[in-house]
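Lab notebook, design round three. We kept the backbone fixed and only want residue identities now. Task for the bench partner: fill in a sequence for the structure below.
Input structure tokens:
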């Protein structure tokens, strides 16, 4: 099947620093059974990657845009398709431990332990890179980020490609990461060779990134694998200091991609932090002010609070999940931000969540989406 979905109006999402060339190529879309993917279908996809082409594929975190990690030209194509700054390095996805040793040096005992505990899975580790990995893949860094995804189709694709697969999230740069095939089609149709439709991504937030090149492992991007889970396996784990205080990020994040205002919806978003009984009336009040200003208002709330926002039918209320189920909140987060784009709201007010465990990753993505606009009540 060939993509029939209308292409995005790129001019409407062009942002500062985002260089998008108009591209028109035929993007093939294949639908697979995510749990038991058909080997022949993935063989074709693997051949495209081996020959220097680009394939979007499902993982357990978000959809990835894959190319040959050992081919600088493929990396350049990835940056061009995404409109991504080329100083932002790519993660190399592997399907076996042998592949790790082809591309990474200095794999420590701690890294071996983390691999045993969490691979395949939503954990990316950073190592010194071997010569074979081109600078184009690592944005010129002497290190390489590596992940073994826990998704049958992703693993089968990497095996079929026969090379490590460099894959950023399969969105246009600056848009929320894709957790559904329609998100990938919307952003990249006409810009890449193939999209593998494997349905909804389970986790919905990008992998935890841990730098393994220092004395103490350091989290550069929080994700589903929490600091507590890592510390249970290897003892002390540090946090990139720029992640510590979400409201006033100072210094340069160690993962180059974390410096960009990623995950951003088109509307101006504000997080409201505090207890429910204070947060809800504050959001209602801000929504009323914005509506009297002729603005279209979106609200991100929970199952527990949704009834409080029935005061006006004009408010676009989206329930992100139940407070007791952070995994559901994580899975819904990017889809909801994209829906607000489609609904063309002008402003979004979001409730906030406890930032422990998985909540740390959820709040990290939400505050980035809000460009760190936060009100404490
Ligand atoms: O879950 C995920 O990790 C998804 C799926 C597709 O696997 N991929 C993903 O890739 O989120 P991307 O490109 O959107 O994010 C990669 C992040 C960026 O912030 C980048 O700066 C950082 O990883 N990174 C990559 N290589 C690095 C390195 N050598 N040192 C520090 N940070 C690195
Ligand atoms: Mg990304």
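Proposed sequence:
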């Amino acid at each position: 099947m060939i993509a029939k979905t209308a292409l995005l109006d790129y001019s409407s999402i062009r942002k500062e620093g985002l260089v998008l060339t108009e591209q028109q190529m035929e993007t093939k879309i294949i639908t697979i059974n995510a749990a038991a993917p058909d080997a022949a279908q993935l063989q074709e996809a693997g051949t495209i990657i081996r020959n220097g082409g680009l394939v979007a594929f499902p993982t357990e975190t978000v959809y990835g845009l894959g190319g040959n990690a050992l081919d600088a030209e493929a990396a350049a194509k990835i940056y061009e398709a995404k409109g991504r700054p080329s100083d932002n390095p790519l993660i190399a996805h592997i399907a076996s431990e042998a592949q790790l040793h082809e591309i990474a040096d200095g794999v420590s005992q701690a890294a071996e332990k983390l691999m045993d505990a969490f691979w395949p899975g939503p954990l990316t580790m950073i190592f010194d890179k071997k010569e074979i990995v081109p600078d184009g893949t690592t944005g010129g860094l002497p290190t390489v980020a590596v992940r073994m995804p826990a998704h049958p189709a992703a693993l089968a694709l990497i095996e079929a490609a026969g090379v490590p697969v460099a894959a950023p999230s399969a969105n246009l740069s600056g848009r929320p990461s894709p957790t559904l095939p329609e998100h990938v089609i919307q952003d990249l149709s006409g810009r890449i060779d193939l999209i593998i439709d494997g349905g909804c991504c389970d986790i919905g937030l990008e992998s935890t990134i841990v730098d393994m090149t220092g004395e103490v492992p350091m989290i550069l991007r929080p994700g589903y694998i929490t600091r507590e889970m890592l510390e249970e396996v290897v003892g002390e784990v540090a946090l990139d200091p720029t992640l510590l205080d979400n409201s006033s990020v100072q210094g340069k994040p160690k993962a180059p991609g974390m410096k960009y205002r990623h995950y951003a919806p088109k509307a101006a978003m504000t997080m409201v932090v505090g207890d429910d009984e204070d947060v809800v009336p504050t959001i209602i009040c801000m929504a009323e002010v914005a509506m009297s200003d002729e603005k279209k208002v979106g609200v991100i709330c929970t199952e527990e609070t949704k009834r409080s926002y029935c005061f006006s039918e004009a408010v676009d209320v989206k329930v992100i999940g139940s407070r007791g189920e952070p995994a559901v909140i994580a899975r819904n987060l990017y889809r909801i931000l994209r829906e607000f784009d489609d609904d063309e709201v002008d402003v979004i007010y979001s409730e906030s969540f406890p930032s422990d465990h998985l909540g740390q990753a959820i709040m990290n993505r939400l505050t980035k989406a809000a460009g760190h606009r936060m009100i404490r009540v």
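Keep this in mind before ordering anything: Residues 168-169, 177 surround magnesium ion (ligand 2) (CB under 6 Å).
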